[in-house]
Amino acid sequence: MSQAVKAPKEPVRKPKVESYDLSHSDETLHLATDLAKFIKENKLTTNVQGKEFVNVEGWQYAGSRLGIVPVVEHVINVSNEQEIKYQAKVILFDLKSGQTVGAGFAVCSSKEQGKKFYQEFAIMSMAQTRAIGKAYRNILAWIIRAAGYEPTPAEEMDYAGNVPTVAETPAPVTAPQAASTAPVAMKAVPAEPVVAAESAAPAYASASQKEEIIRLLNHPVVTRAEKTKMLLNINRLDEERATQAIAKLKKAIDDRENGQTAAAA
């Protein structure tokens, strides 16, 4: 009686992880390895005094692998006659739980070194960028450190401030000379370049509008794909488009609750 030959067992292949869970330490360590590779391949760091600081795009990649997206809650103009200054607040929204899991505040001013002639929209944009990096840093700093980089967003570093200043040598004191009666020509002082006034910044969606959109997106009839799509674009909405999005979401929810189907976003 012949004995049946058993086929060799094929090695079990683990499926590729498409997303990670912050509560599972083994998964986040895998994320650190993946993150290090992504940052290196895409050159998403800035070198300051021999240390590598991750740009905001690297922090956003880490957050996206965890299903955590940034939402700009508000941008406040706190400028005065002497400077252009904006303050921004960003919250982190967990797509899996539907909860806020972090926040970050940041400011940007034209009085900072190297930003004297920045236009207003650039100051406002940098405040938001810094707030995004700060929000992610508050919850993901250890993952960035595990990936081999400094746990401070590159946008927070004051590059000009890291350059040592050279002490000025005092001018030698000379003996006083007799006053000359000849007229002295005044040296012309070059005028500072004039910066064209930036046009008024677009009226982005208000914090209350964004909160209403997020509240509607948490309704059970809204799919995860629709929620993700809307949240990824929520910071680009102006007031008019936000109003339209709220109306569209409400209509889609009503239709679905009444047995009809309609796209939510």
Automatic annotation (TrEMBL):
This is Recombinase. It comes from the Bacteria. It comes from Hymenobacter terrestris.
